[in-house]
Amino acid sequence: MPDVHGTDRLVVHPVPDGLPRNAAFSVKAIRPAATGTRCPSCGPAPGPVDERTGAAVVRSSSVACLDFTGTVQVEVTSSKGAIASARIRPLSYGIPYEVSGDTVGFVLTEPRDLSVEADLHDNLHLHANPY
Fold it and tell me: What phi and psi, each to the nearest 5 degrees, are found at residue 30?
């Protein structure tokens, strides 16, 4: 939905009380011609379960939420250091991104629910909602 005031808007959501924080990623959302806003993330730890044995490999996962109109640049930084490979899912969105050291950067112009993968097993679920 276009912003009737002609400006980009951005709201980041805090992690609700009682949910664990996850420091695996830091997320920064940047409006054009503005300074960035840190977007906190929480961290459930889901993992695939072997249906035959019940064994599970628990992998770290993070969740961050923001609301915006217009354009927002997003920077997702891994606390583990340099990122060798990255993906933004769903792949069907075709969101272009750049990896620079420990950071995956991309631009959103419309709301999206995304999974930003760093080195296959670490991911951040980003809920970028309409303002």
Answer: -130, 125
